[in-house]
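Q: Here's a chain of 104 amino acids. Please give me its 3D structure as tokens.
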Amino acid sequence: MSILLAAELTDARRAYGATVYMFPSWLYWIFVGLIAGWITGHLMRGRGFGCFGDTILGLIGAVVGGWIFMRLGIVTYSFIGSVAAATVGAVILVAIARLFSSHD
């Protein structure tokens, strides 16, 4: 969720007297990274890199995927969009890593 959208939703909820609970952004991105890393492990037909490795891969993939989506003009607002961008970035990172890997 973008920061601007989260701020608008928070302001709207406060205006109507609703209780506002914002998911901590760092926890949100760790969760997105974990899911994106797990999906990437399955898409790339590998065993994955373990829970910690998949999370790191997904987090870095989120940055790469977000940059790619921005360059292509693709805007994501939802959790699914965040996971999609992170997964695209993580798949690209794994593909590049396999190009330089010494494994057969």
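Q: Can you summarize the key feature?
A: Residues 50-72 form the longest helix (23 residues).
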